[in-house]
Design a protein that fits this description.
The complex is a heterodimer.
Chain A: H1 13-16, H2 22-28, H3 34-43, H4 51-60, H5 64-77, H6 80-89, H7 95-106, H8 109-119, H9 125-135, H10 143-153, H11 157-170, H12 176-185, H13 190-206
Chain B: H1 8-22, H2 31-45, H3 50-59, H4 64-73, H5 84-101, E1 108-112, H6 119-131, E2 140-146, H7 149-157, E3 159-161, H8 170-176, E4 177-180, E5 183-186, H9 188-191, E6 194-198, H10 204-207, E7 213-218, H11 227-240, E8 241-249, E9 263-266, E10 271-274
Parallel strand pairs in B: 1-2, 1-7, 2-6, 7-8
Antiparallel strand pairs in B: 3-5, 4-5, 8-10, 9-10
Helix pairs in contact in B: 2-4, 5-6
Chain lengths: 209, 280
């Protein structure tokens, strides 16, 4: 049979002497070879103090596979520096990076929760929209409360539209008053009226009313 | 006790949620299957109704109940030629593309993880021998790995129950197996063709030895992982694959919901995931 067996699986040469030392990994993280940068990023998961250098690299690296590895390690570390750094990246001009960071933050519910209130009132409406995007699949009991506050207070129609779409999925009868108030705040905006009515219908149906 | 009822709206809501979380989309003909298991979990958790349960499911920080639900909503068994459409995809589409792009005559390397008791790896070997003309030109190396050393021993032993081989055509059963005790023994040629290894997918040091694969089969494993573990597994597969190599997941799994590292490839037989070439 033309099947072959080798006793030992293959290992790339650079991986034989792959360092686990923080300083050496920090040097490898800026290597010109993206494979080495990626490997360093993943190995830095063993170092609690590595978030700052990872965030620095995340902002600069153009290679998607390296950025993905950095984000995986930042999720794994999940410390304050990691979360603060990720929030900084939400303000990046790089749309792909912002989307990658939103996905990463969804996986850090307990770390993101304490800063969510401030993210949702950020001066930058784009950051507020990204914060609502994070809520889309953030496993946290406060999600509905946060969304209610957004549609009660946020002056920006796009932020409210993002929030009301999500409330249509996760909202309960507690959101009813906030939804009705939102409709009255934007009476001339057909999409808001449509989305609010849809959300109310879903909530109403859920309660059997 | 209050009778729990899953309404049509409940079902649709659950179906949308479960698909987004797990990648499994239940069609209407699975309604009875889904309702029965949902009601079981609602009762076991002490929730009042679907709505109570759904809120808990969605917002529970630990994700434990979601995991329990996944466990009951998925069927955890393996047998020869399970999800055969992917083997058809391998021999009709994937391998031809790989061999077209190969720059040398090095063996085609296929990795099955988890190995479980070996049915998948042996199925691939049989499928290649029976259906891929390229076997006359190319060497193939199949490595099959599992974290459970008992499973690896069983795979190496190659003895299977009647239930395990029930979907094999009779001709292939005769050709590659012989009756043994209350089951079937796979032939020595096949048994010695596959490398079975014990490995932990989450151990980055162990994983360094797993490189330069052309195809990875990882079916019905990732659904049991949490988000971070799935992401780490995706990183492992990315590093283990050659550029343009393929990952085949179970029918209910989606790499797109785990990682953006891979391209979706739609072949006539199956959707699989491909590591991009040199430039991402």
């Amino acid at each position: 049979m033309p099947f072959i067996k080798k006793n030992n699986p293959t290992m790339d040469s650079y991986e034989h002497d792959c360092s686990r030392d923080l300083n050496e990994l920090a040097v490898q993280l800026v290597d010109e070879n993206p494979v080495i940068r990626r490997s360093a990023a993943l190995n830095l998961a063993e170092h609690q103090g590595a978030s700052e250098i990872l965030i620095d690299r995340l902002k600069q690296d153009r290679d998607i596979s390296v950025r993905d590895a950095i984000l995986t390690t930042l999720i794994s570390l999940g410390d304050t520096f990691a979360v603060i750094g990720l929030v900084e990246c939400l303000r990046s001009e790089d749309a792909a990076l912002r989307n990658e960071v939103v996905d990463a933050m969804k996986q850090l519910p307990e770390k993101v929760a304490p800063i969510m209130t401030s993210l949702l009132v950020d001066v930058n409406s784009d950051v507020r929209i990204f914060a609502v995007n994070i809520l889309e699949s953030l496993r946290h009991l406060q999600v509905e409360t946060w969304l209610d506050r957004v549609i009660e207070d946020d002056p920006h129609i796009n932020v409210c539209a993002t929030a009301v779409d999500l409330l249509g999925e996760v909202g309960t009868s507690t959101s009813r008053a906030a939804l009705i108030h939102l409709r009255s705040r934007f009476p001339d905006e057909p999409y808001i009226c449509f989305a609010v009515n849809l959300a109310l219908k879903r909530i109403g149906e859920d309660k059997g009313t | 006790m209050k009778k729990i009822i899953i309404s049509e709206d409940d079902f649709q809501k659950f179906r949308e949620f479960f698909y987004r979380k797990v990648g499994i989309s239940f069609e209407n003909d699975k309604r009875y299957f889904v309702d029965k298991r949902l009601i079981e979990r609602i009762e076991l958790t002490g929730a009042n109704d679907f709505r109570d349960y759904f809120i808990m499911l969605r917002f529970e920080a630990s994700g434990q109940e979601l995991q329990q639900l996944i466990n009951v909503m998925t069927i955890n068994e393996t047998y020869f030629f399970r999800e055969e459409y992917q083997f058809k995809c391998l021999v009709n589409s994937i391998l031809d593309e790989i061999t077209r792009n190969k720059k040398d005559t090095s063996p085609i390397r296929i990795w099955c993880v988890p190995s479980s008791s070996g049915e998948e790896a042996y199925s691939i070997a049989i499928y290649l021998l029976e259906h891929w003309p390229g076997m006359t030109k190319w060497d193939v190396e199949i490595i099959s790995s599992d974290i459970d050393s008992v499973m690896i021993e069983r795979a190496q032993r190659g003895h299977y129950s009647s239930r395990s081989v029930q979907y094999l055509p009779a001709t292939l059963l005769t050709k590659y197996f012989k009756p043994s005790g209350d089951g079937y023994q796979i032939c020595e040629d096949l048994r010695s063709s596959i490398e079975f290894t014990c490995v932990n997918l989450m151990d980055s040091v162990e994983m360094r030895a797993y490189r330069k694969f052309d195809v990875i089969f990882c079916r019905n494993l990732l659904i049991y992982f949490d988000d971070l573990s799935r992401r780490l597994a995706a990183e492992t597969f990315f590093d283990a694959l050659n550029p343009n190599g393929f990952v085949c997941l179970g029918y209910s799994e989606s790499m797109s919901r785990i990682s953006s590292l891979f391209r979706v490839r739609k072949f006539p037989e199956a959707i699989v995931y491909q590591k991009p070439g040199v430039d991402l």
